[in-house]
Amino acid sequence: MASVGLKTALQALVVDDVLSGSCYSSYSGKPLRNGFFSGSGSNFEVPGTSLCRLAAVSSSCNSQPLDVQGPSNDAAVGGDGLKVLEISMMSDQGEVKSMLVEFLQARGVNGSLATRAVNKATRLTAHLLSLLRMVYRIRYLTGRELTASEIRSSLSPFLEKLGAEQDKVGLVDVFISFPDAPSVKTKNLDSYYFGDSFTSPVLGEVKFRSFPQLQAHMVYGKLPLSLVYLLELGFPPDDVANVVSQFPSIASHSVEGRVKPIIDFLLGLGIHVTDIPKIILRRPQLFGCSLEENIKPTVALLKELGVDSEGWVKILSQFPHILTYSLGKVQQVVSFLSEIGLSPKESGKALTRFPQIIGYSINAKLKPFADYFHSIGVKDLKTLVSRSPQLMGLSLELNIKPTVLFFSENGYTSEELSTIILRFPQLLGLSTEGNLRPKWDYFLQMDRPNSELVDFPQYFGYSLEKRIKPRYEALEMRGIKWSLNRTLSLTGPQFLKHMEKETELTGLVQNLDLRESDGYQ
């Protein structure tokens, strides 16, 4: 995985213009290590480049030497001069290492891993310090310290070239193994696919060179078997690359020991093989979980709640994250549902419809939810959650409280509000300004009592333009007065049939040309 782009990145290691007495003295261009470009495992052909130019090209360094006039080497390299040089280099080492850590972090490597990698990258650190010593030779020998800005501007071009085309995993490998190319250990060779192509039952023949998005994850042109296995399952190459970017460790996982058992377990739950890529893409961290200690116990717990194969298909298509939570976390949420009155079977149904509940904090999300509804007089949380478990995903401040305030301001009592919410809990997810207010204003135009909305709060779930207005106007034109429930809940054909029948009874038969949809929003 780390060899991609290394051919160009390692150009920074070969020098043909290194300072010897001035910034532009020549150097033979020999590799830094004997045999670096020859021998087993090395086939790089790297042209010479100017290390001085790599370091010096920046906003503060144009094409002029960075050295200033100072004493000659003979005058400077005395005991005191060497001591000054040593102290200066020690001072700059910390700045260089900090720069390397930040460089890795900027490319997605987490802080602790970046620090460990830099601590192991002793040869790279020494090389960068040597580079600084060559570029700022006189400054060091005269005891004038470099600024952090000078250090960073000089080394940035070198690091950018070193990190060209590397993903974060490959970059860590390059840092640690510098100046050698990261090698594949013999004991791990059986974890890589050494063919140039393979035949997938879904994709047909796949030639690796045809998919550049996979190249970042190859080692010496060989793709890890775990990734080949995903391709064989039908993962498009782009999706495989996406999985690795989200969960880099999969590239080093054993197919038989880790990846395949997880896939087989999902298939055993009733998941169709064509749905596997979608599930893994949403949560590739599944491959980092223990099948025996984490996944199986969670599945067993939910099966006790009545979740069957059909339920697992629904759960994992929505929220495969559920299998990555600890058993203790899942048990906490199940206990909470029990506390608000749900039976085990009802809890299973709620989790099947909205498995995201498992991801919510008990103290920060679920308990405040329950406490608020108790405070406004909604005591039957069991019915509320059973009818619409998705409510638990709504924001108290942005969704629920503004809706409650809207009805309170329009004259509804706490008891009426409780009835409205329990009869149509989805109401709390509707926009106050975009949905409730326009329909409320039209309700007022219909000159109906507020109690009708207590009886039929589902009114707010229908489309104002496609359902409410056309039906009300058709009835109004014929002098027919129906309840909101009857007006809106009938299907289109039923509505026309009953309206015609009632029109005939009153002797008001007319030509009806009422076209409408059964839209429900």
From TrEMBL:
Q: Which SMART domains match?
A: Mterf
Which superkingdom? Eukaryota
Extract one GO molecular function annotation from the record: nucleic acid binding
Which Pfam families does the entry mention? mTERF (PF02536)
Which GO terms are recorded in the biological process aspect for this UniProt protein?
A: DNA-templated transcription termination
The UniProt keywords, alphabetically, are: Transcription, Transcription regulation, Transcription termination, Transit peptide
Q: Which family does it belong to?
A: Belongs to the mTERF family.
Q: What is this protein called?
A: Uncharacterized protein
Q: Which organism is it from?
A: Ceratodon purpureus
